[in-house]
From TrEMBL, chain A:
Cross-referenced InterPro entries: DNA-dir_RNA_pol_su2, DNA-dir_RNAP_su2_dom, DNA-dir_RNAP_su2_hyb_sf, RNA_pol_bsu_CS, RNA_pol_bsu_protrusion, RNA_pol_Rpb2_2, RNA_pol_Rpb2_2_sf, RNA_pol_Rpb2_3
Taxonomic lineage from the root: Eukaryota, Fungi, Dikarya, Ascomycota, Saccharomycotina
Protein name: DNA-directed RNA polymerase subunit beta
Function: DNA-dependent RNA polymerase catalyzes the transcription of DNA into RNA using the four ribonucleoside triphosphates as substrates. Second largest core component of RNA polymerase III which synthesizes small RNAs, such as 5S rRNA and tRNAs. Proposed to contribute to the polymerase catalytic activity and forms the polymerase active center together with the largest subunit. Pol III is composed of mobile elements and RPC2 is part of the core element with the central large cleft and probably a clamp element that moves to open and close the cleft.
UniProt keyword annotations, A-Z: DNA-directed RNA polymerase, Metal-binding, Nucleotidyltransferase, Nucleus, Transcription, Transferase, Zinc, Zinc-finger
Protein family: Belongs to the RNA polymerase beta chain family.
The protein's enzyme class: transferase
Annotated localization: Nucleus
Species per Swiss-Prot/TrEMBL record: Kluyveromyces lactis (strain ATCC 8585 / CBS 2359 / DSM 70799 / NBRC 1267 / NRRL Y-1140 / WM37) (Yeast)
Stored CDD domains: RNA_pol_B_RPB2 (cd00653)
GO MF terms held by the record: DNA binding; DNA-directed RNA polymerase activity; ribonucleoside binding; zinc ion binding
SUPFAM superfamilies per the UniProt record, alphabetical: beta and beta-prime subunits of DNA dependent RNA-polymerase
Subunit structure: Component of the RNA polymerase III (Pol III) complex consisting of 17 subunits.
GO terms under cellular component: DNA-directed RNA polymerase complex; nucleus
GO terms classed as biological process: DNA-templated transcription initiation; termination of RNA polymerase III transcription
TrEMBL record, chain B:
Protein name: KLLA0F13948p
InterPro entries: RNA_pol_III_Rpc5 (IPR006886)
Residues in the signal sequence: none
Taxonomic superkingdom: Eukaryota
GO cellular component: RNA polymerase III complex
Organism ancestry: Eukaryota, Fungi, Dikarya, Ascomycota, Saccharomycotina
Length: 1142, 252
């Protein structure tokens, strides 16, 4: 609770990340410039991102897992006992990841080497063990029980705290956010999962069916279960999966020890007469069942339990067990007193009664405050605990096996066998991360698709993936609620960034300035509450519980308070002074008369400036110290200037957007309004001027833009990489662009655009491209494709080899081997054409022979042949050894591509288009200065799309060009259009951005002023070269003898059902015949006119004659059908007749 | 550039009403703070009672009984289980009114007392019972708190009798031999000893097997108790070690 590290402003060490801020001119501001809180409070945002980063949630969660959660897991499973020897025990004392007890760090293979060599980036897990060896107790330190995959840039990663030059030495990109794992050489991300919050009551009502239910999903380390309190025929029952039928709620409460009807009524209804009227029936029901005592009630429940147990329990014991551990499993009762449980069930019942009384008192499942995000750390911890339990079981079985032997010769040392099982943990973790299949035995849970390969299409796509949140909802269900934009996601989840189509609204992205909490201790918070005057719930009599406000800690009532407002404000005061963790949320719910405190993990929260008496706590002085590096973001928290609010607490506050809106009521001030958007949507200039779906489209397209992906992009050997040759940072930036360093790794170029019609090849959003611009490098990109070859070793000591090159009579290499070097591998820089070989591998023919009968090894050539329509160049060749000692060869093939007809481009406003025509520069229009556009865009793109932001981008960009500045198009801010127009006018241009253009063909000036200026254009990964496909003849499928499908198999182009319908409608029967049979699977069969069955070679097998056999052509598929029908005892007989009668 | 080319932003939204519900309460509490002068200073003594103090709560007693000691029903017997901290109290019933003697005689073994039962929960919150005497406050730490609720032993035992009769009526199952539980002195672990009871079940088993310790209920001992508790011997006067400023600085 105590933050011990006090701050010394003078002895402050120099912070490199703030260097840029300390330069005389930073982002257009001089150090001596006046500081304006309203304008400059946004500087808190870079300060926040510096400590938190965009993927901090992943790192925090992983750090929490390796540092805290692992120790808890060890503690929960610390002892291994033997069933055989009562003297034996083994106890885990401590667990550490990556370092030994003396603090020595284990040596790790650097991440980039793991990527290249297809290895797993991991570090050993060490445990300290105390156990009995013979008579003595031994303590053994630093026993390795397996290897843990390490999240990049977590505190166990070697990149943690590394400076830029250290990163460069390790071939890492300093801008790479980390937060992913490297398993077998591939980068894997564990996506954030969104779930309904655990251990909280959710009340729902179905007004049509007249059902109200309160449900709670209990989740502990041991088990997961769901308990319901439901209405049925206006009576209230408790429902649970392991209890056969619904139990009347009064019986349950009596089983919990609340036997008096009066007390039940007090617990559930308090003294509210309308609640009492609703609830009274339930008391009668218990009386009808003749259940009066606790024992009767427990036995009643005991008879209904349907759990299968190894151990036989009496009915009463079953009842006790059901109430104590099964129902509301997260409150496990260890002793005699069930009051805590009775209270919880009574509270659930009360919520149901309240919802019956007032149907508005229900909860919203889609409300972000009722959601929790599950991160990598939590998922890893579930997995690790499962594997660790299995490890312990195996270990114990092994120990028992040895100890069972009656007369052992020597003293048994349990540790000698521990290493046998350590592989289980390592492979278990690796397999789960690399396949994405999370299978947990103890929850009987199977989850697929938890991990994804990190998309390295562009820097933004990687970043976008790290902030992505996937929902547990099925995509097929047709409910709109979970997909809809929730008002409560303001500032927490990006309002624009969601995919279109089936996953729309289910996959979300974090906003720019968010934090996801990790679990916090409950106990100290409880103490704080009691110290602040909360009356302990266990001492309060049932009659007075509902008189005051209840105080709930993580959904469980811990007491009541008479002065909720005072209590809440005092608690907040403690939090602001750092006495309680800053991520604990507290809020009042007046409808439920409750104060809720949350310490659990997975809540999204965001920082806001605290406002008191209409004054912002953050003053110009603070900002000055921030800029001077004397204060950090965390200091703002400690000083109580800024605090984190989660969604629930946000709803209990008045938050002003701007400083001018501050008044007495306001409790908080937004740091920056553009943080409602996420990292990806933050690229859009002037998004607040666009029609909203356009921003969503851009979020999808920004991830497909080709650009620079990382500083180490040329050192990477990825399966497929697209890189832009001359990327530029946009003329119109946003603050987000600077914060996420998009300006350092951009994906696009500033094109001079003329919005006009030209040549007619610009319909349907097609673009006209300037040939000279392309020659100068506009839109030029390269693709880099990897090929991996493994040289296998075989059991009989033979192995794959690389042959040299073959030469012709002149000593020149033959054409296929032209790209090879003398070592049989492609030479770097050589061009490979289709059909040429770049790895000349040979495989032994006798690999399966045994070693004994071995003769001279025979080899068969299995070269790697390049097959593609366009040649490539060999960019890199790498030879190394992977984890399993087999030689690994990776060849990187590069292709340089200039834009061509059909390549896809898009601006940053969801305006995509393909290149329709490439025009010589001399034919294009030009303005007074002789500037010729790079792109001509058809004005019809604007009216229906309403992307006004694009127009403003053009004007700001043009002003920036004239002024020599980079302009800002930040959301809800940015350079003002008026100022931009002023710059245009000052430079002799029209305020509206329109220029007079002259036709390049006639030289005459155009009859209209043309909207003309720079717009940032992205080249998207969809290129004609990868997609164009045609076939005259080619391969056919074996079964049907029809042409194969798909470009990759050189397949035919399908004439589908609808196309067929058209041909029928035209009556073009011969075309139909040709397309459907002759060009596809025409087959000549022998048909017997007598029996109507098919024969062969002019012979009818059923008639045993050749007399009536005639030849005819039918589709092979038809022949197949007839034969399949015959196989199932149906004889299709063909009756032939002449089309043209004689 | 205000040449009317561009529409300027509309003025901000109208201000919300200045009397939010939240604020009113805040203000009132602030006023309270200011108008809350110190009336009296009371010395505090921490005392160690002659025996551990248990607080028994009676949630089913009517509120109006509280002040008037005479109207509280007399207590016939008290029992306590030490290990499981279970209290039982017998209160004689008025068998003259609202009492079905026949039914009591028939199946309830002539019951004439109401039994209250409660599990004492140890008082983690460090609560104290206070006694004011001669302008001084004496605090006695409360060890355990129990809530006393009705316990209908006669119903349960009647049902047990019925059940036994039913079981006798049925032919006894000869294969069902009584299992003997052999306990070993090995440290228990959830994994190794699957057949051991745990948690609440164990607690119930222990409580069922434990014998009640009969205690005597004594009324009218309050005065002497107060005397004993407030004696010089057993009290430690509490004195502040620091002044207000130091205390406050420690808090914040």
């Amino acid at each position: 609770m105590n933050h011990t590290d006090s701050h010394n402003p003078d002895g402050y060490e120099k912070d490199e990340a703030f260097d840029a801020l300390l330069k005389p001119v930073f982002k257009g501001k001089k150090l001596t410039d006046e500081i304006n809180t309203a304008e400059d409070k946004w500087n808190l945002l870079p300060a926040f991102l510096k400590v938190k980063g965009l993927v901090k949630q992943h790192l925090d969660s992983f750090n929490y897992f390796v540092d805290v959660d692992l120790k808890k897991i060890i503690k929960a499973n610390e002892v291994i006992l033997s069933d055989v020897d009562p003297e034996f025990y083994l106890k885990y004392i401590d667990i550490r990841v990556g370092y030994k007890h003396n603090g020595n760090k284990a040596i790790m293979t650097p991440p980039h080497e793991c990527r290249l060599r297809d290895m797993t980036y991991s570090t050993p897990i060490f445990v300290d063990i105390e156990y009995t060896r013979g008579r003595s107790i031994v303590l053994h330190r630093d026993v390795e029980i397996g290897r843990m995959p390490i999240m990049l840039r977590s505190n166990k990663c070697i990149l943690d705290g590394a400076a830029e030059n250290d990163m460069a030495k390790l071939n890492e990109c300093p801008l790479d956010p980390g937060g992913y794992f490297i398993v077998n050489g591939t980068e894997k991300v564990i996506l954030v999962q969104e779930q309904l919050s655990k251990n909280r009551i959710i009340v729902e009502a179905d007004e049509k069916k007249n059902i109200v239910q309160a449900s709670v999903t209990s989740s502990t380390h041991e088990r997961k279960s769901k308990t319901y309190v439901v209405t049925k025929n206006d009576k209230i029952y408790l429902k649970h999966n392991s209890i056969a039928e619904e139990v009347p709620i009064v019986v349950v409460l009596k089983a919990c020890g609340v036997v008096s009807d009066l007390e039940i009524m007090q617990l559930v209804c308090g003294n509210d007469s309308s609640y009492q009227d609703i609830f009274a029936v339930n008391l009668e029901e218990a009386a009808e069942l003749k259940i009066y005592t606790q024992q009767q009630a427990l036995e009643f429940i005991g008879t209904k339990v349907k759990t299968v147990r190894r151990q036989k329990l009496s009915i009463l014991q079953e009842g006790i067990e059901a109430i104590a551990t099964t129902v509301i499993a997260h409150l496990t009762v260890e002793a005699l007193d069930f009051r805590e449980k009775a209270l919880y069930i009574a509270m659930m019942t009360r919520r149901v009664v309240m919802a019956i009384d007032n149907p508005k008192m229900v909860d919203d499942r889609d409300y972000v405050g009722n959601k929790r995000l599950e991160l990598a750390g939590q998922l890893m911890s579930l997995l690790f605990e499962d594997l660790f339990k299995k490890f312990n079981n195996d270990f114990k079985a092994n120990i028992d096996k040895v100890l069972k032997k009656p007369n052992r010769a020597e003293m048994y040392d349990a540790l000698l066998t521990i290493n046998v099982h350590s592989n289980n943990i390592t492979t278990g973790m690796n397999r789960a991360i690399s396949t994405g299949n999370w299978s947990l035995k103890r929850f009987k849970m199977e989850r697929a698709g938890v991990t994804h390969v990190l998309s390295r299409l562009s820097y933004i796509s990687a970043l976008g993936m790290m902030t992505r949140i996937s929902s547990q909802f099925e995509k097929s269900r047709k409910v709109s609620g979970p997909r809809a934009l929730q008002p409560s996601q303001f500032g927490m989840l990006c309002t624009s960034d969601t995919p279109e189509g089936e996953a729309c609204g289910l996959v979300k992205n974090l906003a720019l300035m968010t934090h996801i909490t990790t679990d916090d201790e409950e106990e100290p918070i409880k103490r704080i509450c009691y110290l602040l005057g909360v009356e302990d719930i266990s001492l309060i009599d049932s009659a007075s519980i509902h008189l005051n406000y209840g105080v709930y800690l993580n959904g469980t009532i811990i007491g009541t308070t008479r002065f909720p407002t005072k209590f809440v404000s005092q608690f907040r005061c403690l939090r602001r002074t750092g006495r309680a963790s800053e991520f604990i949320s507290i809020y009042t719910n007046t409808h439920q008369k409750a104060v809720h405190i949350a310490t659990d993990g997975g809540r999204i929260c965001r920082p806001l400036i605290i406002v008191s008496n209409g004054q912002s706590s953050v003053t110009a002085d603070h900002l000055r110290s921030l800029l001077a590096g004397k204060l950090q973001f965390d200091d703002f928290l400690k000083l109580g200037l800024v605090e984190y609010l989660d969604v629930n607490e946000e709803n209990d506050s008045f938050i002003a957007l701007y400083e001018k809106d501050l008044s007495e009521n306001i409790t908080h001030l937004e740091i920056e309004s553009f943080t409602v958007l996420g990292a990806v949507a933050g690229l859009i200039p002037y998004p607040h001027h666009n029609q909203s779906p356009r921003n969503t489209y851009q979020c999808a397209m920004g991830k497909q833009a080709i650009g620079a992906i990382a500083y180490n992009q040329f050192k990477r050997i990825d399966t497929l990489l697209y890189l832009m040759i001359y990327p530029q940072q946009p003329m119109v930036k946003t603050k987000t662009i600077e914060l996420i360093d998009y300006d350092k790794l951009p994906a696009g170029q500033n094109a001079t655009v003329a919005v006009m019609s030209y040549s007619g090849y610009d319909i349907e959003d097609a673009l006209v491209l300037n040939k000279a611009s392309i020659d100068r490098g506009f839109g030029r990109c390269e693709t880099r494709r990897k090929n991996t070859t493994v040289l296998k070793r075989y059991p009989n000591h033979t192995q794959d080899i690389i042959g040299g090159m073959r030469v012709d009579e002149n000593g020149e290499p033959i054409w296929q081997h032209q790209a090879l070097g003398p070592d049989g591998l492609g030479e770097v820089g050589m061009k490979v054409e289709s059909g040429q070989i770049y790895v000349n591998k040979s495989v032994p023919t006798n690999a399966s022979d045994s070693i004994l009968t071995q003769t001279q090894a025979q080899y068969k050539e299995t070269p790697v042949v390049y097959r593609a329509p366009e040649p490539s160049h060999i960019d890199q060749v790498m030879m190394s050894v992977s984890d399993n000692d087999q030689a690994l060869i990776k060849v990187l093939l590069r292709q340089n591509r200039r834009p061509e007809l059909g390549d896809k481009f898009s601006s940053r406003h969801g305006q995509k288009g393909v290149c329709g025509i490439i025009v010589k520069q001399e034919d294009l229009p030009f303005n007074d200065q002789g500037v010729v556009p790079d792109i001509i865009m058809n004005p019809h793109g604007f009216p229906s799309r309403m992307t006004v932001g694009k127009m403003i981008e053009l004007i700001s960009g043009k002003a920036g060009v004239l002024n020599g500045t980079l302009e800002y198009g930040t959301c809800f801010g940015g350079s003002k259009l008026e100022d931009m127009s002023k710059i245009l006018v000052d430079n002799g241009f029209n305020y509206s951005g329109k220029d007079m253009l002259y036709s390049g063909i006639t030289g005459e000036c155009l009859q209209a002023y043309i909207f003309f200026g720079p717009i940032y254009y992205q080249k998207l990964k969809h290129m004609v070269l990868d997609k164009m496909h045609a076939r005259a003849r080619g391969p056919r499928a074996v079964l049907t003898r029809q042409p194969t499908e798909g470009r990759s198999r050189d397949g035919g182009l399908r004439l589908g059902e609808m196309e067929r319908d058209c041909v029928i409608a035209y009556g073009a029967s011969q075309l139909l015949l040709e397309r459907l049979m002759l060009s596809s699977d025409a087959f000549e069969v022998d048909v017997c006119e007598k029996c109507g069955l098919m024969g062969y070679s002019g012979w009818c097998t059923s008639c045993k004659t050749a007399e009536h056999v005639v030849k005819m052509t039918i589709p092979y598929a038809a022949k197949l059908l007839f034969q399949e029908l015959l196989a199932m005892n149906i004889a299709p007989r063909l009756k032939l007749g002449d089309v043209f009668e004689a | 550039m205000s040449n009317g080319l561009f529409v300027t932003d509309e003025d901000g939204d109208t201000e919300m009403n200045g009397n939010g519900k939240l604020d009113k309460k805040l203000q009132s509490s602030e006023i309270l703070k200011e108008d809350d002068p110190v009336v009296n200073e009371i010395p505090i003594n921490l005392t160690v009672g002659p025996c551990p103090l248990h607080v028994l709560q009676f949630p089913n007693k009517p509120k109006r009984l509280a002040k008037n000691m005479d109207e509280h029903p007399p207590i016939a017997g008290v029992r306590y289980k030490d290990e499981s901290s279970v209290w039982e109290i017998d209160i004689p019933l008025n068998t003259q009114v609202f009492f079905d003697k026949e039914k009591a005689a028939e199946s309830w073994n002539n019951v004439d007392v109401q039994t209250l039962k409660g599990v004492a929960v140890s008082n983690d919150m460090l609560q104290y019972a206070g006694v004011m005497k001669q302008g001084q406050l004496y605090l006695i730490p409360v060890e355990k708190v129990a809530q006393m609720r009705p316990y209908f032993r006669y119903i349960d035992s009647h049902q047990q009798v019925k059940k036994d009769e039913d079981a006798k009526a049925k032919p006894a199952n000869p294969t069902a031999k009584k299992n003997q539980v052999i306990t070993m002195s090995v440290k228990s672990s959830s994994e190794a000893n699957q057949n051991r009871l745990g948690g609440a079940l164990l607690a119930h088993k222990v409580a069922d097997e434990e014998e009640f310790k009969p205690l005597e209920w004594k009324d009218d001992t309050f005065e002497s108790f107060v005397e004993e508790v407030t004696s010089e011997k057993s009290t430690v006067p509490l004195k502040p070690m620091d002044n207000d400023a130091v205390y406050l600085s420690k808090l914040f």
